[in-house]
Write a structure and sequence with these properties.
Shape: globular
Largest sheet: 9 strands, mixed
Strand content: 15-25%
Oligomer: single chain
Order of helices and strands: EEEEHEHHEHEHEHEHHH
Radius of gyration: 17 Å
Helix content: 40-55%
Strand order of the largest sheet: 1-2-3-5-4-6-7-8-9
């Protein structure tokens, strides 16, 4: 097998459909899993760590099957780690949606919001960092050219990752779009603080028919006021519903790819950027 030489301590299970692999990596005492797509050829490649959303039905890998080949075909390693409680890592911990629901039942919306933010800034951010640590060790990855991206809850995670880690660039698609109004002012406050403190440029984008466009507008304005590098774009409506508009980051690559890869190449090709700073 093409990647057999990379199998040392990590479990690798080939998936035939798109040349992807299932990989295992540690997060503290937990063992988590994710999907990996590597471009054809030899040598080291730039990479993107992609944070998934909060949907419970993440086992199908439909979103990653759509995204992984897009990045790999352009010479980027695509790594999609599943955080605890979801998808391939479902057995590693409770599902975040269940934890939020339990908090809402016992303490109402304020408790649900605090639980969501706490988990995204602690357990789930730690899982993202663990995935990044694993990715940095891979011999086919250029460790100073690793970007972060994500959609919905994953977009929130990408923003928090941009604040904590030294990624070369970040892509936030619809981070918080479903929860922005329900979770105000807390979610807006923590995400605004994160982008003000971001260690990397961020590209914010959404489809016009997404749930709420406020996150893209508010967060890009916050970065502007903080003197940080950013870009933002609202694309035409995608699909026929708000829910379909929210999946634009997964399935609308034919529209956003030119902008996203231009942004990545701009910020991930300059010496001194990224994790080796």
């Amino acid at each position: 097998m093409r990647y057999a030489r990379f199998v040392l301590l990590w479990l690798l299970v080939p998936l035939a459909a798109f040349g992807s692999q299932v990989v295992s990596f540690p997060s503290g005492k937990l063992t988590l899993h994710g999907y990996l797509y590597v471009p054809d050829g030899k040598g080291r490649f730039p990479a993107v760590l992609y944070n998934h959303g909060s949907a419970a039905g993440m086992l199908s890998n439909e979103a990653f099957e759509a995204l992984g080949p897009v990045f790999a075909s352009r010479g980027w390693v695509f790594f999609a780690p599943y955080r605890r409680g979801q998808g391939l890592s479902a057995s590693a911990g409770p599902y975040i949606g269940d934890e939020i629901a339990a908090a809402n039942k016992s303490g109402g919306m304020p408790a649900a919001v605090e639980t969501m933010i706490r988990l995204l800034q602690t357990d789930h951010l730690n899982d993202q960092s663990a995935g990044l640590a694993w990715l940095r060790k891979q011999p086919f990855v250029q460790r100073d050219r690793i970007a972060v991206a994500g959609n919905s809850f994953g977009g929130i995670e990408a923003v928090f990752g941009a604040e904590r880690e030294g990624y070369c660039a970040a892509i936030d698609s619809a981070g918080g779009a479903e929860s922005w109004k329900l979770a105000q002012p807390r979610l807006q406050a923590v995400m605004t603080l994160a982008v003000r403190n971001a260690r990397t440029p961020i590209f914010f984008f959404q489809a016009e028919n997404d749930y709420d466009l406020s996150p893209t507008h508010v967060l890009s304005e916050a970065m502007k006021n903080a003197g940080k590098e950013f870009e933002m774009k609202i694309y035409p409506p995608y699909g026929k519903s708000v829910a379909e508009g929210h999946t634009f980051a997964y399935f609308g690559s034919s529209v956003w790819a030119p902008d996203v890869f231009r942004f990545l190449e701009k910020h991930c090709s300059e010496p001194g950027h990224g994790l080796d700073r």
